[in-house]
Amino acid sequence: FQAGHYAVEDLARELRKPLVETGGSVATAALDIAIRMGANPVVFVGQDLAYLDGLSHAEGTIHEREPVPVDVFTSVPGNDGREVKTTTSWNIFRRWIEQRIEREKGRKVFINTSLRGARIAGTLVMPISEVVNEFCQKKLPLREIISSALGIGRGAGERIGW
User: Fold this and answer.
1) At CA 39, angle to CA 33 and CA 45, rounded to 5?
2) CA distances for 1 relative to 14, 15, 33, 64, 69, angstroms
3) What is the Cα 51 distance to its own chain's centre?
4) Peptide bond into 67 cis (omega under 30)
5) Can you give the pLDDT at residue 161?
6) In what order do the strands lie in the sheet with 124-125?
């Protein structure tokens, strides 16, 4: 249930379901869900929020051939110290992420694996190989964690397809 939509918020209260702050992007909604699930660290993968090498999306994705809207570019600091080009909407998502991270200050670690992407204040920049070596060595009961975060009872995950 998406926060910020009054009718949806009313329904969520009635059903006793949590609200998700979406921030306008799948990535921002995923960040809010990860925080609510207790993820620590929270790792951003593929969130460069910039037009690197003139591409809007990674090669091999459905959007790789989309034209670059040059009239909506703005420059922001990059993780490698150079300025990077981004769009107004991606910059809004970046600032939303920064504000959401700020609310968690001191409680969680946020890591950005995009070494050349837009700088997201409040994140540590780290190559994904280092993240995997340091943080991804323990198996977690993800089905139970997700079910708990969504307020779904035991076994409900299997009933809805995961």
Assistant:
1) 80
2) 12, 10, 11, 31, 32
3) 18
4) no
5) 45
6) 42-44, 110-112, 124-125
Gap between the terminal Cα atoms of the chain:
19
Count CB atoms within 10 A of the CB of residue 121: 13
Model confidence over 5-45: pLDDT tens digits? 678 778 878 888 877 777 778 899 899 888 988 889 999 99
Report which residue type is found at 53: D
Q: Give 128-134 contacts, CB < 8 A, sequence gap 24+.
A: 128/45, 131/41, 131/43
Nearest to 109 by CA among 93, 124, 94: 124
Alpha carbons 92 and 110: distance in angstroms, whole number: 18
CA quadruple 96, 43, 46, 31: dihedral sign:
negative
Q: Retrieve residue 21's tokens.
A: 């702050």
Round to whole Å and give the CA distance between 104 and 122.
10
In this predicted structure, the answer to whether residue 157 has a pLDDT above a threshold of 70 is no
* 55-68 residue pLDDT tens: 666 677 776 666 66
